Amino acid sequence: MGAADAVRRVASKGAGAFAEDGKKTEAIVLAADGMIWTGSSSGLLIQWDGNGNRLQEITHHPCGILCFCSYGSRIWIGYVSGMVQIMDLDGNLIAGWVAHNGPVIKLVVGDGSVFSLATHGGIRGWNVSSPAPMDNILRVELAKKEQDYTRLENIRILVGTWNVGQGRASHDALMSWIGSTLPDVGIVVIGLQEVEMGAGFLAMSAAKETVGLEGSSIGQWWQDHIGKALDEESTFERVGSRQLAGLMIAIWVRKTLRTHVGDLDVAAVACGLGRAIGNKGGVGLRLRVFDRIMCFTNCHLAAHLEAVNRRNADFDHIYRTMTFTRSSNLLNNAAGMLRYLYLSCSLVFSTYLFWMLYSCGLPWVLSIAAGVSTAAQTLRGADVTTVNPDEGRPDLAEADLVIFFGDFNYRLFGISYDEARDFVSQRSFDWLREKDQLRAEMKAGKVFQGMREALVRFPPTYKFEKGKPGLGGYDSGEKKRIPAWCDRVLYRDNRASPMEPCSLECPVVASILLYDARMDVIESDHKPVRCKFNLEIARVDRSIRRHAMGELLRSNDDIKSSFEALRFVPETTVSTNRIVLQNQDKFSLKITNRSGQDMVFYQIVCEGQSTISEDEVASEYHPRGSLGFPRWLENIHKHARKRVLSIQPIPR
């Protein structure tokens, strides 16, 4: 049975064979031993024989498979997570590594290498013999030259957080908050809370999340005015944002740094009613800076003095479930267009329904909105394994730098309103810090595990009466809420210990240059907080490392010996290297393995061809290089004339 017949027979098993349990088949390959392998969107690998019988099922990586490549006794697999794996003909895993930061959509063999293509256009080549003893030699020898190709970069990041209380800020307020710190800043990340609130808006936001839409006109207003404060037109470039109900995060990058920043992803996690409403939760941005992954998460956690455990649970939920994934374009094809139109109609109907329910009362709105937002999470996260390749390990845990900021809502405990006001007026912050819930919970290891915060030297940022300047503006109403440091910035870098230096083993080291609150801003009941980071980033200078690798390949005796071993040609007998085809006669080519090895793979290359006329005169010989056999060998025309073909067996 031919290879095409075998593949057709497997395919003829029907849709049920490939779509079993909803696992869509994405790739298929014919292996060198005649077996067929298929890969599904769930990461399931299935082996079939030539008759279409299922032989085995295995999973080496819980992520969608997009492509295969078979070469000799190995099968290469490309995943949507960017990983490439190699397995043998029996399905045993040989090796695997992250090849790209995007899905691998194609694997091809050429000139002794397997080349992988990612969706972003990146192409990388991998030696067909990898993994091999030569890899270990290269790894050890290159490590000795690490200082030669390591480069240290230094950038500064400004992170700002502000609960704006559904208000808007003047240009002077924005300049006081972020404008005065900009001259040496390369990246600006801004997080806002309570951009908009109210039951009607929350219901609308939940409906928009259902169809993959987000943002609002007020959120856009904030981004535009912050952009003006940053001199967006000439100095900074806005590269991304995400809004979930009243939560918004946006990022700007200095234009001189823009070429070193990319791969932006966004995410959102709701922590409100039923873990579905976005009045509480987190919005995140993930990007690469000098090839290092950085994540920024703006949070608004549960309110009220006594809700410490709920705040801790909110953080845990955000940290564990925040999943970054590139948004899909619904307009890619006709099917996408139909789905888009259907969801748009659903949004219009949902908006009308929410308005009707809102006029009847808040509880109904919240209950319906919770159901809609749950559907949104199902749509966005239906295939979680295709996003998070390491099952059970949060996306945030993979980052080199993680910064959490926002209105965490942790309060001061064991102190009265008057006592707190007295200590604030005396600027006795050391004693007040001992009453800080967040500090106590972090010390007990209950929240923000492994993260750090600079020493708080500014007054509590909540709660103020809008429009009242100075420390006399703290809440003096009926409730008299105790002043608290609700608005915070925390971070984690690569360091295992505070004194660990920046290196390729510890590629991101952060320190804080500024951490304060702008007490002169009076547009909200919270004061805006800002934190300026200094980052040391270790990266690889690829051109120098390639040069070092080339020197090793030329000069290292062990590596040269490995290359000689790869050039070994097993003892083989070939019946002929000249094939003459005439009329419809068949010709048999016999290759005999005399090497003593159980299995030897050969690639037969058509080096060239010529045509012999009826008077036995041969035409000019036409080399074919590595293009393979001519098509007439596969389907000989009945009027084909006598042809001569030279071949050469090449062991693999």
Automatic annotation (TrEMBL):
SMART domains in the cross-refs: IPPc
Pfam families according to UniProt: Beta-prop_IP5PC_F, Exo_endo_phos2, Ig-like_IP5PC_F
UniProt domain Inositol polyphosphate-related phosphatase: residue ranges: 153-541
GO biological process: phosphatidylinositol dephosphorylation
One function term, GO molecular function aspect: phosphatidylinositol-4,5-bisphosphate 5-phosphatase activity
Family that this chain belongs to: Belongs to the inositol polyphosphate 5-phosphatase family.
Protein name, per record: Type I inositol 1-4-5-trisphosphate 5-phosphatase 13
Organism this protein belongs to: Striga hermonthica (Purple witchweed)
